[in-house]
Each structure stands twice: as structure tokens, then as C-alpha cells.
């Protein structure tokens, strides 16, 4: 697969060293009015003509991300929904970049058909929908936005805590049906109550601050020791959190260790009349066990934003055809069911579009892997317009003894201005800027690197 993908990055016979056409390429900043030397203008590196880079964006990626990619001159196709696997395979065969959110599954079967794919952009927090190991071993970098929607999710959870404590969902449904039911029985203020946060990362820590501001006591459980914010405190075990908290909220990734981490045994540990909120991943809560706990009165209310199986598009799909218990779940009282909207705010989606869009451009144009979740994170100072005959060599390779020696032998006949290399597991990433090179030199370097047995992916940017 990698060999076919690299054909696009090899140099044509009539190629010449030049800066590709781009709206930003010929822009020169004027000298600063504050004095001092003018900063060098970064040189826009391109692996081939920008209009030849094909990008597929699925699941209604925010316009901010689309604009960043389109302004680079790339060919961008944007669809509002995910695709069935057979259609996804057909589409992905020709693209160099794919942008997805949470519903599109890029497994080994799909990625094995992606002959030209260089990079994947996950316009969301999670990356569990991508086979990261397979992508890495085939030189495909993966980027995400780990915290841009943290505030949106935290605010949703605060809203759900109040809504559950006051049974607002039930009262609203009754009023829509014409029923006036003014009650205070088992309706509570959240001031003075204890919030238990499972997973004290970007979202959990923000939620902690918001909850304390509203008068709640906060405890949290995490698999690593983390600094407490405000007066919150870390508890040593999950069971101790469940026994103490009035409200339990989950903010953990989808891992084998987190599957059904809240099931019948854990629900039994919770306080009678407590509440459960899950805005993390659909597999971390055993929903049939939750249904039983709510029917028995053990759990007074719950809010679910994620589910083990979710529809690919909007519509009347939330029924037993997806999950066998959905109709039972919908029949419960004081339960909030939302369609995976934790990060679905204008602010969050715009921030995610900018963050991931910029990361994709940096990787395509300069080979920079900062923020990649499956590659060594490498950054190298940008080449400038004052360095016209430079080229950037990128060599992704197996992390085995002797590779750097062989690479340096290939580059040894040229002036290597700067070079950096790092590894991650059995994969390594090398970047080198070579000066005073001609087209024939680049072709020779490219072919020599391609011939090495350690090669995963070779790119030449100039």
C-alpha cells in the first residue's frame, strides 16, 4: 500500500525546484514598525501540486476546518453523514486525507484499501474509531482535538445534574402532554451534594471547577495521581467514589479496561437514590443493568449521551434495531437521552475545525507531527523564502538497528542543514532539510531511501 501511495510524492522528470502556487506563498511581511530585523517568511513546502491533494471530510465537519483546507488549494469533498463500509472503501481509495468524527470506523479492512492515504484527521476528542496501530505501521499519521470541546461537555453535564435533581425532564414531558404536576417530592438542590468524577482529564477537571462554583463537593477517581483543582480530592478506588457520591459522571476513553466498568456490581455500590451520567463512551455503562437499577429505585435518575451502537445519520433510528434495550430505556422516568451532543456547540466545533485543520496542513506541507496520536512527535524549523534550493526529506521507518547509519550514508553527499529523529515503539520518524539540491539529487535521494528494507514511507517536500 505504501509503495502505491509514494508514487504521488515521487518527482516527475520535468520537475524543477520552485515554490508551489499558494495564496500565502508570495506574501512578504513588511518590516515591523517597532524596529528590528524582519522575520523570514516561511516557505510553503508542497509534496506535489496542491490541487492534486484530495481530501474527504465526513460527518459534517465544521466550516472552519473546511475553509482552512480549501484555502490551501486542496480538492475538498465534504459530506454531512458517515458512509456505509462499502461506500467508504470506494471513496477512500483515491484520497490523501480523510477527516471524520466519531461515527466513521477506519478499521484495518478499510485502511488496507487506502492506497494514497497520508493522514487522518479526527475532528473530535476520541480516536478509538481508528485502527491506530495499523495506520502507524503504514505511515498514516492520525490527529485529533483532545480538549477543544471540553467546556461544552462540562457545561452539558452541569445542566444534566440540575435537570435530574429537579426531575425537569419529566415535568416538561408532562406539560407537553397537557398535565400540570407541581411536586417537590425527591426534588433537590445540588448545593451541598457530592459529585463523583470518574476520569479527571480535560473534561473532568473543568467539570470539577464548575461544580464547586455551584456549591458541590467534588471527589474524583483516576488510574493515575492527578493534582486536585480547588478543594476537590482524589479517592483511591472506584468503589469508594461510588459509595460516597450523590452524582456519578464518567469521562473515560473506550478501552478494554473501561468496558462495562459500571455494571450491576458497581450500581449496587452506589447510594440509594443517586444519579449516573455518561457523556464519555457508550461501552462503559452496562445499560441493561442500569435499566434494572432504575426500575428498582436504586438509581433515581440517569443521563446518557453515548451508546454502544449509534446511527450513522440523523433520523428515526433510535430503536431496538440498534440496541435491543432501547425501547425499555426510553420508557424509564427521570432519564435524559441525548444523541451524542456533548461537544456539539458552535464554539467547540469551530475550535475543533481550526485545531485539526491546522494540524493537517502542517503535516501535509511540512511533515510536522506535533499532536499526532500514533506517530513520534517531530517539529523542525520552517524553511524560508531565503532558502530556495532546499528540500525536506521525511523517512518513516521501522525502528531497527543501523537505519540512521544507512540514511546518513544516502544524505552524506549533500549538505544536511538540520535533522531530527524520534521513535515510538517499533516506528521511527526522521526529518532532514537538505540544501543546494537539484531535481536529480532529490530523485536519487528518494529512490535510495525507498530501496531500504526498513522503509515504511518516504516523502520529499520542496
Give a topology summary.
Elements: H1 2-6, E1 54-57, H2 63-70, E2 75-78, H3 85-92, E3 97-100, H4 108-111, E4 119-122, H5 132-137, E5 141-143, H6 150-165, H7 168-176, E6 194-198, H8 202-213, E7 217-221, E8 233-234, H9 238-244, E9 247-250, H10 264-269, E10 274-278, H11 287-295, E11 299-304, H12 326-330, E12 335-337, H13 346-366, E13 391-398, H14 403-411, E14 415-424, E15 427-435, H15 439-450, E16 455-461
Parallel strand pairs: 1-2, 1-3, 3-4, 4-5, 6-7, 6-9, 7-8, 9-10, 10-11, 11-12
Antiparallel strand pairs: 13-15, 13-16, 14-15
Offer a few descriptive terms.
alpha/beta; Rossmann fold; 462 residues; 15 helices; 2 domains; disordered N terminus
